[in-house]
Amino acid sequence: RAWAVDVIAAEFTYDRQGRYTLDLRVQNAHSKHSPQVDAFQSLLPAAFEQGGPLASAQRFFNRYRPFGTIEQLTLNAAGSLKQLGDSEVTGTVTCGDVSICDRKFPYAISGLAGDVNFTQSSVTLNGLAGRHGDVDLVIRGWTRGFGPERQYQYSVTSDNMVLDEDLYIALQPGQKQLWNSFDPTGAIAVDYQLVRTSPLDKRQSISVDLK
Known about the structure:
This protein is α+β, with helices and mostly antiparallel strands. The protein is 15% helix and 61% strand. The chain contains four helices and ten strands; from the N terminus they run ββααββββββααββ. The protein has helices spanning 39-42, 53-64, 165-170, 173-182, and strands at 3-14, 19-31, 67-80, 83-102, 105-119, 122-132, 135-144, 151-162, 187-198, 201-210. A ten-stranded antiparallel sheet has the order 1-2-3-4-5-6-7-8-9-10. The mean pLDDT is 89.
């Protein structure tokens, strides 16, 4: 009972050799924030627990705890029922009003809207727009591959981030010490970048414009 969906439409075809195609459409899917009901975990086959797209999706759900409304989900898949892990997959998730909160940086973002495109090996965020109170934020980026060789590039930007208690609480202890040294107030424009090109090349940077 963690999800409610207004419309599900699917066409599934297969032959004697196990070749299949799937065309899936979901409209107006609602989820509620329910830590006691891990709906996604219950759908995760044991074979996918160690790696691959489903395991990556599970880690995303565990870290960011998304809930809210998905206006539409489209998915097209083709491959062999005997080797589901090698299927070709494309799809789009259209977010209508989604909330997330990163366990590592608990600065909640609500009202996320925009498209997320995915394949069997990649995810692209096409400028998801959300907010934290009066603060407007935009999230862009992409990830390709899984496991140690995964590559990604993400950015989080805002033109009106307020230096308030909510932001302070989300900081790490060392960052809070720096904050306490200056006790800043007001607003900033911020551009946070996170890039990973290899297991040995992971970089993050932040640009701040004092407003």
